[in-house]
Amino acid sequence: MKVTLDHVGIAVQDLEAALRFFRDALGLEVAAPESVATQRVRVTEAAAGGPTLEFLEATDPTSPVGRFLDRRGPGLHHITLAVDDLTGTLEQLRARGVTLIDQQPRVGVEGSRIAFVHPASAHGVLVELKQADPAT
């Protein structure tokens, strides 16, 4: 199984305020925001010389990101690892007793296939797995 770092997710209270630092002050190239209705977030990514920074703003305080912000405040939310075979990876993880949030892949940003591993199985880190090639 080949695994590479895809992006780091950062939960923010105010997307525009965050971009004033990362885009305007640091000069990172930022994509147009996208709403992900199923996750109740607005998301944008910033190029960072390889893996990207993904900024997440809750559109509903009861969404997973909204609850995270309420409990912990803004900051690191998750890391995303790209895998060649998401379904196969989930099967391997289940066989090893890993606790999964998503038993099957679901749709993420830009139609990608994703699934989350519970932080309890990843030493306190929320890990998102992403199909390396969403067309497969």
Category from helices, strands and their pairing: alpha+beta
Oligomer: single chain
The dominant shape is globular
| Arithmetic mean of pLDDT | 94
CATH names the topology as 2,3-Dihydroxybiphenyl 1,2-Dioxygenase, domain 1
Which class in CATH terms? Alpha Beta
CA-based gyration radius:
15 Å
Q: Can you say what the CATH homologous superfamily is?
A: 2,3-Dihydroxybiphenyl 1,2-Dioxygenase, domain 1
Which strand order spans the largest sheet, edge to edge or round the barrel?
A: 2-3-4-1-5-8-7-6
Describe the biggest sheet?
Answer: 8 strands, mixed
Number of β-strand runs: 8
Proportion in helices: 10-25%
Number of structurally distinct domains: 1
Low-confidence stretches at least 5 residues in length (pLDDT < 50)? none
Distance between the termini: 15 Å
Strand content: 25-35%
Number of helices: 3
CATH architecture: Roll
Topology diagram in text:
Blueprint: E1 3-12, H1 15-25, E2 34-36, E3 41-46, E4 52-58, H2 64-72, E5 75-83, H3 86-95, E6 106-107, E7 113-117, E8 127-131
Parallel strand pairs: 1-4, 5-8
Antiparallel strand pairs: 1-5, 2-3, 3-4, 6-7, 7-8
Summarize the structure.
It contains three helices and eight strands; from the N terminus they run βαβββαβαβββ. It is an alpha+beta fold and 136 residues long. The model has no long low-confidence stretch (mean pLDDT 94).
Could you explain the architecture of this structure?
With 136 residues, this protein is an alpha+beta fold. It has one domain: 2,3-Dihydroxybiphenyl 1,2-Dioxygenase, domain 1, CATH 3.10.180. The chain is built from three helices and eight strands, in the order βαβββαβαβββ. A hairpin with a 5-residue loop joins strand 6 and strand 7. It starts with a strand and ends in a 5-residue tail after the last strand.
